[in-house]
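We read letters as residues; the integers encode the fold. Take this protein.
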Amino acid sequence: MKSLLKVLAVLAILGGAGAAAYRPLMNYLEARNKTEWRTQRVDIGDITQSVNSTGKVEPVKRVSVGASVSGPIAELFVDYNTKVTKGQLMAKIDQRLYKASMERDLASLRTRQAEVARSQAMLQQARNDERRATELSSSQDGFISQAEMDQFKFARMMREAELQVSETNIEQSQALLDNSKANLGYTEVIAPCDGIVIDKKIDVGQTLAAQFQTPEMFVVAPEMDERMYIYASVDEADIGWIRKAQEEEQLVRFTVDAYPDELFDQGKIVQVRLSSKEEQNVITYPVIVETPNTDLKLLPGMTANLSFQIKKREKITKIPNPALRFYPPREKVHPEDRKILDGFEDQKQFADTPKMVSADEKAGNAKAILNRHVWIEEGKFLRARTVRIGISDNRYTELIEGDLHEGDLLVIGEKPKK
């Protein structure tokens, strides 16, 4: 009997010790297995919504300078990067053949002028003969027959025609001389405008052949030391924002690889072209951006990484973007909020199902997507907060409506187990 009592006493002691240790042990295990969440704070600050794109830097204009006459290049007076002014001599083509042609046509003109003088003298002689014959016929009736009078008359008319032919020959010779002078003038290649030579395609001794096509000798970029264009391609989904930014005269910021630490922030949208392009089922539109270039840092062909500023909000409550993308596991969400996840799964399944929606539905979905949920830690579970969002940048999104305040911690993910 005593032994039984001893056993019962030991069991009672052990049971009491176990009962006393159960709660701390369970608390320890619960704390050890508790999920640790990664969080980010709700902040106050500025947000700028932008559309990003890439583009190519090009001069405002490219003026091609060619030659209208053929021949070997005799002299060059400009090279790459030379600044030229309108009317400046850039190159000279061998002039010997063209000078010879001009002198030949000048001699021909002088010959025609001499022929005109001779025709005028012969015409005057024919007129005198006709006049004397007429006077003699009037004073002495019948002294000169009518046939002889006709000879004097038609001789005078023939000389008048010969004079007209000679004068026409002068005009023809003058035209040939003008053509020769023009060709001689074309041997001097003149700058058509102020600018910088960005391309040179000929050298001294090279022969130009201009019979079928005007050869390109130089490319001059006017106003390159004042402004440049950036030719960007913008996705069709963003082109509405770009047009609105153009109407509001929003500035465009960009960088180039040559100066990665420098921000160019004086770009201006000058044109949104209607000529769309399709590449791999993606539609883009050309957008032309003008930017100052007084220091000549921007060179033709550079790649620019552009950021079109669409909207800007200052001193607003903003939510970290990872918090909007986070959806927690169902078992770690408070039971009252699990229906939100159920709705999300239904939406996912609906989105994965190919279906054509109406324009009204599509517009409604675009508005509905502005209503989102974020998650905060509350005890053992996560609770949802409904928010309405506005513009966004690459880090934060504007909070329009919602029970959130500066400094609130929003869950963005689960910390890895140690």
Q: What stands out?
A: The first strand starts at residue 37 and ends at 41. The chain has a mean pLDDT of 85. The first helix runs from residue 2 to 33. The chain has four domains: 32-49+317-414, 51-60+226-314, 64-94+187-222, 96-185.
